Amino acid sequence: MTPLNSAPALEIIDLKKAFGGLIVTQNVSLSIRPGERRLIIGPNGAGKTTLFNQISGDMRPSSGQIRLFGTDVTALAPYRRAHFGLSRTYQIITLFAGDTLEHNVTLGLLGLRPARWQMWRPLAAYGDLATEARRTLDAVGLLHLAGHPVSDIAYGEKRRVELAMALAQKPRILLLDEPLAGLSNSERSTVKSLIAAIPRETTVIMIEHDMDTALDLAETVTLLNYGRVIVDGERDAVIADQRTREVYLGA
Amino acid sequence: MKRIGFALLAGALLLPPLLAGEFYINLASQILIAAIFALSLNLLVGFGGMTSLGHASYLGVAAYMSALLTSKYGFGHGTAALLSIAGTTAMAACFGVIALRATGLGFLMITLALSQVLWGLAYRMSNVTNGDNGIAGLTRPTPFGISLESPASFYWFALIVAAFAFAMMTIFVSSAFGSSLKGVRDQPRRMAALGFNPWLIRWITFIYAGFWGGVSGLLYVYYNKYIHPTSLSTTSSAEALLGVIAGGSGTLGGPVVGAALVLLLKNYVSAYVERWNMLLGLVFVFIVLVMPTGIVPGLSRLAAGLRRGSR
Q1: Residue to test with chain A: of B43, B182, B184, B194, most A Cβ within 10 A
Q2: Where exactly are the structural domains of chain B?
Q3: Contact at 8 Å (CB) between A222 and A229?
């Protein structure tokens, strides 16, 4: 679908991050095509979330480069990257607990629109935002809870609100940090089909420990350990790789 | 229910000049001024999550500027008011750049330090500010030729300004920008990831709060016809902060109730109890214990509970 010569959706070049003497990301280089489904795996403390934080801009790398669709964004603030088409979800649920589900998703929509600076019109006057927010909530199966505050709903539902907030932004690149964490089996399959339904215009990069579910969603896999890329490539090749078994899957 | 409350409020605001003596009319005017000041501080504390302990800077600087411009440099009240507000707002813009390098406790300390600098200047630059003597013999403006000398006429003037200020700040926090601000207060990291610029949102709010702080400062100096360095002191900032927290930060009515409470204690109770500050402290501790989120949220929760109980 995309021309072959187009720039990668995300390109990471020789990324390094150190906290004092502790090196958490070293010499990481990745290239992810537009529309690709990439799974990032690795043992606890491998530096997966740290890598996400550097891609989203929450953390500045010590050296190296991050490019989104060919543009160097290494020095850009997180909100600038969001306007570039980057969205993310959090491993630890980060929602507006006192506000309704609809308001949460509306904030996601508002963030990319000039209306966020509007100081006269109440947010409630933006009917199109509310409609769009409800449509997104419907897509993740939470429309019936739209008017409830986030603090009232169950954990698994909060995970889906996290997803809805990011999906509402129609991102070009979506970072999912353990979207299945702490979910029951039935909730897993719900979220799995939601992720599988994400349109191909969106490149999806996902950290996940649940191999059974995640491998079905992934086309390519990157294995991290001690902040380094150990194996990187097509899903089946990475899974079959001897080093993957040693580091992650176990014998 | 809401209509009754509104009628009661309107009655309470219109009554003082009709029924009460001068002492109470003046007290009501002071409450209105303190309410504008507390509302502006609440934009930072309640809606922005930025606890400032230096908000008196804006009240004091606007008051001093107006006092100096009218008494020393021969400006008319209209020009002086515009210059004072513009100057105070510009100062808020500069202070914001400095203070917003930090959040939380760091922010609080920077605002405190900046206000202490101004307070020190007001004391020490006595060739300009008259130091500890303050600037006396000031006049009130005469908007459209109407004299504001009588307590009642000044009360009406303050009421109009306060109503306008309340409306403007209500619109501000209910707007789309207000939602951005509350989002940044609750989850700054998430808001940045969603495309909001947290720093800029905080800075704009800081300036807006400084603007209304300046407006309250103008009313303050018009009312007192006198200005002294204590208006810039930490006590002045802390009193307002106490009012905001006691009344209910992050609500629209809270700061008004809180400011009224502090002033009533200060002016009324101090006539009977010498150590009124101690009483203020006790009242504050009591409120925090009984209604940790403040009087207004506490009472509305109580009312909701009663309504449920009666059904």
Answers
A1: B194
A2: 28-230
A3: yes
